[in-house]
Amino acid sequence: MARSVGIGFQDFEQMITTNNFYIDKTSFIKEWWEYNDVVTLITRPRRFGKTLNTEIFLSTKGKKDDVDDEIKDFLAYIENSTDACAQQTSSQLVKAIHKRVTEIKLDKDMELQYMALLQR
Question: What is the distance between the alpha carbons of residues 16 and 38, in angstroms, rounded to a whole number?
Answer without folding.
Answer: 27
